[in-house]
Write a structure and sequence with these properties.
It is built from ten helices and no strands. Helix 4 runs antiparallel to helix 5. With 194 residues, it is mainly α. It has a single domain, classed as Tetracycline Repressor, domain 2 (Orthogonal Bundle).
């Protein structure tokens, strides 16, 4: 299944408003009318851009997953595995800090996406994780894939906690803290006996 492109600035505006509303009130706590009003449309006018609220959520999560996967592949391609890991960390940290509503919705609302799109989102998420696993295995070929994969999932959980923790520090300080913590966690996972 291919991801529909964000075809217009209006469509992107709707997705941004939906992310903020879904993060604040939950998917089921937002009506199509409220979503339309957030961007200056009536509920029925929103149907010119999306089939419905489910389609908004699906496109939002498909887009996030595709963006993470594409950027992950680009950064993981660095021939220096240490440089690739730093690039992956910096990319994901910046994404998480700049998009707390998307991180919240991504973590909380996937079960509300129709099954075909949910399957595509999960497939794309697994591919993103595998970019990280490949980098870790290049750094430490002796570490089993399952251990590297578990470490990546734990690291992403740490980085995706930013909607709950990022307000304590300014953005640069939080990015540095997250980078140091995530790097230490991954290094520790690779260095621990297995």
């Amino acid at each position: 299944m291919s991801r529909p492109p964000v075809a217009s600035p209006r469509r992107a505006e709707i997705l941004g408003a939906a992310a903020a509303l879904f993060a604040r009130h939950g998917y089921h706590g937002v009506s199509i009318g409220e979503l339309g009003r957030a961007v200056g449309l009536t509920g029925p006018a929103l149907y010119r851009h999306f089939r419905g609220k489910e389609a908004v959520l699906a496109e939002m999560l498909l887009d996030i997953s595709a963006r993470l996967r594409a950027e992950g592949a680009q950064h993981a391609a660095d021939p220096d595995p240490a440089g690739a890991l730093d690039a992956l960390l910096r990319w994901h940290i910046a994404f998480a800090l700049d998009n707390p509503a998307l991180i919240t919705v991504h973590g909380r609302e996937l079960d509300n996406v129709p099954e075909p799109e949910r399957h595509e989102i999960r497939r794309t998420q697994r591919a993103y994780v595998e970019e990280w696993v490949g980098v870790l295995r290049r750094l430490r070929p002796d570490v089993p894939d399952a251990r590297a994969r578990a470490a990546v999932h734990a690291c992403l959980g740490l980085l995706n906690s930013t909607p709950h923790s990022a307000s304590a520090l300014d953005r640069a300080a939080m990015a540095d803290l997250l980078h140091a913590m995530a790097r230490a966690a991954l290094t520790g996972a690779l260095d621990a006996p297995h």
